[in-house]
Here is the input.
Amino acid sequence: MNVNTPSTNKPIAVAMSGGVDSSTVAAMLRRDGHTIVGMTMQLWNQRRLPELSGEGATGRCCSLDDVYDARYVAETLGIPYYVVNFEKRFEEQVIKPFIGEYLEGRTPIPCTLCNNFVKFDPFHELAEGLGADIVATGHYARIRRDEDSGRYLLMRAVDSSKDQTYFLWGLTQSQLAHTVFPLGEYTKPQVREIARSLGIPVAEKQDSQEICFVPNGDYASFIDAYFQEQGIPREATHGSVVDTEGRKLAEHCGVHHFTIGQRKGLGFAAGEPLYVIATKPAEQLVIVGRNPDLLRAELTARQANWIAVDHLAAPMRVAVKIRNKHEAAAATVYPMEDTSRFRVRFDEPQRAVTPGQAAVLFDGDEVVGGGWIE
Here is the structure.
């Protein structure tokens, strides 16, 4: 059963970011006769850490301009509109874990943390307070209900170039049961055309590219500025860059400046391409090697969330994505004694398997489940 299109007489709460996608969702549902209410989440005060703002700090989601645009769209549609302040929750459940992961030598995905802990459960709670039991968002994904198992399935979007299931693997059955993704059946050009036809004032607005709290993707500078703002003294972070034989090649100013697969900014010149293949925060070591050193045939993942199945009872053939832009690779996933973890063995070794990123498992278009790479 397709549950991308809501069948309810109750109000629907639309998560409005101010962009073309969520604005089009609101307009489509309004056009189709649904009673809707628009809600925008204020997640991060972008006046904080002003030293990070510069001429290039544009294109971030959830900006003050986005809130203005969302309100303007709501006024244009003639729907009730609210801004809800989730800044404290966002800082506790996204910002601080993000920083902690980076300092431990992992590369986290804040958008997934935000979806898991901020954008769905508390948003649903607020929606219920307004009499809405369904939340609609502008994510490119699809939801189906399997009539045989009764489970809600998360499916890839029709537009593979915009598919966002990699960031949604942490959604629970309860969250999926009360969420709709109306854009999952459309391509981005089709969505823009719908927006134009419905008179949406942000129909031509550019998509956001940057994480809302990290201008220009400079994670390390954000971490340094955040610690300075909080008055938290930093432990010594200087250490050595070494090769796979342990030979020292250079000095560095913190492992949080490096991620697996990184080639640029290593701090020294080499006669051949070298890449970060591992970091050891406890020893302040950054280990570099050649491209073949980045290949891994296996991974383990923690904090598993299963969607298509209740749990993993036996080895299963899947396709696995280890980054959002990674082409899913054929593999077998194995259950582990600790049921919150699983092991993946790839048919062919994969490049730059990065701790802190997600391993998302697919069976065709279905998301089987996922977990955080260890």
Remarks:
- The chain has three domains: 12-217, 236-289, 295-373.
- The helical segments are 20-31, 64-77, 87-103, 110-119, 121-129, 173-177, 188-197, 219-230.
- Residues 87-103 form the longest helix (17 residues).
- DSSP finds eight helices and 17 strands in the chain.
